[in-house]
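FW: tagging you since you asked about this chain on Friday. Here's the raw sequence from the shared folder, copied in full. Didn't touch anything.
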Amino acid sequence: MSDQVRIDKWLWAARFFKTRGMAKKAIEGGKIQYNGGKVKTSKTVEVGAVIEVPQGWDRLVVEVLALSDQRRGAPEAQKLYQETQESRERRERDAETRRLGNQGMTPPPGRPDKKQRRNIHRFQRQDADS
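HL: got it, structure written out here
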């Protein structure tokens, strides 16, 4: 464990990103917030800092508990941070909203057969002619 770690290295070591390059790209793109503000890749992380990180559909807000510049196993990486209670509640609420929103959608039964495909192509040609 080090006493000074760059934020791109810390995000990589905490397993938020697969490579340091991806972490750097996210930081430069303004997707990472450090204590509520924008950050540069050279910023050193401090214990107790609050970092906002995008994860798929969600944005995790985590508090830094420990510093590390080495990537280790996932159980050890999870000891570097703790997700805030508000972030956890918001993430669970958003997941439930997405689940309920997708509940009414039914996937198509399968691939279209020859007759259905002809109808699709005929419809597309009519739409293009208009």
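FW: The CA atoms of residues 65 and 75 lie 14 Å apart.
HL: agreed, and The chain has a mean pLDDT of 92.
FW: great, closing this out.
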